[in-house]
Structure formats: structure tokens, C-alpha cells
Amino acid sequence: MYRINKETARFLINLVRRDIETNNSKRGLSIDSETQVLATLRYFAKGGYQNDINYKKVVRAVARHRHEYIKFPVDQESIRTLKRDFFNIAACPSIVGAIDGTHIKIKNPGKRDLYPLTYQNRKGFFSLNVQRGSVHDSRIWHKCELKNKFGRKDINGILLGDSGYPLSRYLLTPLLNPQTLPEERCNQSHIQTRNVIEQFFGIWKNKFRCFLNGIHIDLNVAKNAIVALAVIHNIYMEHRVNNNDSNEEDNDDNDSICNQNQIEENCQRNAFCQIYINRHFQ
């Protein structure tokens, strides 16, 4: 029912107990923290509609731990491990991560939001885009703190993105029209390696069935819920919780409408791409 073992459930309860019980005492509520956490986990695992207001406190309490459980490693040992693990997939060197967005279906924000149609994606349903916001991946990336860390060279490595992202010295995108054998090799390696992000989104959405039918809660709570679900997923990984989730890939936002980014790339970026290809795929 909860897609979690007792030990991990107990860990989550203890993680947020203080926040929940403090909130309960202020409101004069008598529902214990264990019941609230387990009810919220059941909603996340099974989906459907959630009418009980108590899950909001759990969602906020879990989301407060985002900086502990959602972070990009920056120490050199972790970076070396990432490069090795990504290289072992398809011999793509210097890679430390893959980046993409995925749409999480939400209910119509309605009159409570001044601009509800801004959350309607090009496939016609209301959603939040994970990364953050509901706009296209490349626009979100430009406002992302991770981009700034790579730009400052705080992280020594390269990310892989699809053709919706702008090519740069730290973000490698596929060639739209490879002309040579090295370019074809690079593209094939890129595709196979970047596939991990599609697999992750598929596993994440299958682990928490609330994603599949949409998160039918208020917009602000939905935003916290998505963050909380990322925190819980990473806690599950740390505790080796295995739900036998499907490896079905998530391809809800791969139609790459921003190919004009490729046209607008300057010579320096293209030169970096060619140097990378010539150095590693000849």
C-alpha cells in the first residue's frame, strides 16, 4: 500500500515529527504524526484525490529538507565517480550529469491564480515542469542555480541535454545533422548516456502513482509536494527501498521545439563541440 518498508517509514516519521507536532499543538489537532505521514505516503503511492488537510503539513515538513537530499555533488571524489559511472554507460567522457524537464500534471489552478493559462502546456493539460515552473526546459535552465555553478567552474565536468538546450562548454547537446563518423559516434554515445534521465523520470512517476493521474491539490501545495516527492525518492534510494518499479521511460517533453537555439549558437560554442568530438570520438 505504501510502497515502503517499516524502517524507512519510521525514518521519515522521525524526520518530520517535530515540525508536524509543533504545528498540531498550535492548531489544537489530535492526529498523531505517524498517522499523518502514513496517510500522505499512501496518497503519494496510490494517487487519487486527497481531501484531508493534514497532508499539507507533512508535505511542507518533508520539503523543508530539500537542501539535505536534493543537491549536486561538488567534491572532487564524487565528481570523479560520476565521470567514471557515466563513461561506463557508452564511453562519453567528462560527463557528470544529464539534464531535462518533465511535466507533472496538476489540476486547473482556476481563479486562485491570476494567470492559470500560464500553467497549460503545449499538449493541452495543466502542469508544472520539473525543473521549476511550467515553461520550456531551456528557459528554466537560464534561471537555474546549477547553471551558475557550472558557469563559475565550481563543478568540473559536462552535462548532457537534448537539443532544446543551448550548447555551451559545460552543456553538450546532440548534433542535429551529423556529417562525419566521429560526429555520429558522439551522437550515439550522447543518446545512450543521456537516457538515464528519461529512465529516472519513468521510475519516479511509477514509484509515486499520484503523478500518473495528476496531483489534485492546490497549486502551492502541489509545488511543495513535487519537492517532497524528490526528497522521499532520494531517501528511498539511501535506504535501498526497492519497489520493482517499471523502467518505462518518460518522454513527455522531448519534441525539442527550440532548434533555433542551435542556429543561434556562436562560433565559440561550435568550436568547443568540434574539439570535444575530435578529441574523444576520432
Task: Walk me through what this model shows.
The chain is mainly α and 282 residues long. The protein folds into 2 domains: 6-64, no CATH class; 68-280, no CATH class. The protein is 52% helix and 6% strand. The protein contains 12 helices and 5 strands. It has helices at residues 6-27, 33-46, 54-63, 66-69, 76-90, 137-142, 145-151, 181-207, 210-213, 219-238, 260-264, 267-280; strands spanning 95-98, 102-105, 127-130, 158-160, 171-172. A 3-stranded parallel β-sheet has the order 1-4-5. Strands 2-3 form a two-stranded antiparallel sheet. Its cofactor is a divalent metal cation. It is found in: Nucleus. Residues 132-234 form the DDE Tnp4 domain. This is DDE Tnp4 domain-containing protein.
Number of strands: 5
Tell me the series of helices and strands, N- to C-terminal.
HHHHHEEEHHEEHHHHH
How much of the polypeptide forms β-strand, as a percent range?
5-15%
Distance between the termini: 52 Å
Overall pLDDT score? 83
Number of helical regions: 12
Brief summary of the model shown:
The protein has 12 helices and 5 strands. The protein has helices at residues 6-27, 33-46, 54-63, 66-69, 76-90, 137-142, 145-151, 181-207, 210-213, 219-238, 260-264, 267-280, and strands spanning 95-98, 102-105, 127-130, 158-160, 171-172. α1 (6-27) packs across α2 (33-46).
Task: Please give a handful of descriptors for the protein shown.
52% helix, HARBI1-like, mainly alpha, 2 domains, two-stranded antiparallel ribbon, three-stranded parallel sheet, metal ion binding, 12 helices, 282 residues, nucleus, DDE Tnp4 domain-containing protein
